[in-house]
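Quick start: what a row looks like.
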Amino acid sequence: MKNIVIAAGYATRLGELTKNFPKPLLKIGENTILGRMLDDIDRIPEIDEHIIITNHKFAGIFEDWKKDLHYSKPITIVDDGTETNETRLGAVCDLLLAIDQLSNSKSSNSKWPDDLLVVAADNLLFFSFHEFVDFARAKGTSCIMCHEQPSIEKLQRTGVVELDNDNKVLGMEEKPQVPKSHWAVPPFYIYLKKDLDLVRHSVENGCGKDAPGNLAHYMVEHTTMHAWPMSAGRFDIGSLDTYYEAIEKYGK
């Protein structure tokens, strides 16, 4: 299984802090946002490589950061070629670019296609991705995460899923005005290799490009998927206020 980290955004809501520096590499205490995530994912036996897709503006910074790391699994940096927020490809197109580049450059010793763990790089997590991988293995399908969100206002700003008693996804809506459940979808996904043809052709068949949830919504409509209810919370770093709050709460 490959761990693909979507890190090609420009984090414009953090202003000067991320004008010339990638949000995933901002410090929380002695570690970075992304480093905290990789510390967990690197310990999962099924993971054999971390692929971080970023933009051209920040690719060199990621390469320099990578030099001092000592993870057990190799790290590959993929540059999507963009340099501004206005020219960004969007999260779904970034994922497809990473898949295509890896497919075309695979060595004779590598196994591709492979299952994919796909994660956004701007969250602090209070659970292990190992639980998510185990859930997907047990279900034998591609999977998304979900968590209960009591706030209707917050549900109207995210993806919302309906589930059956076995956690099979019955339907998914993006930013619904009238949510059909309280199950919100964070940006963490597992796409099994048997579904990668669907992933590869998603955009040409009408899938939205910008947010990673666009692909999850598309996949729910085209294949069987299950949703893992998160066993603990997360902290989404989306603004200057939430970044400084994360430092205060979790950086000591």
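That is the whole record. Helices lie at 33-41, 56-67, 91-105, 129-139, 152-155, 196-200, 212-222, 240-250. The first strand starts at residue 2 and ends at 6.
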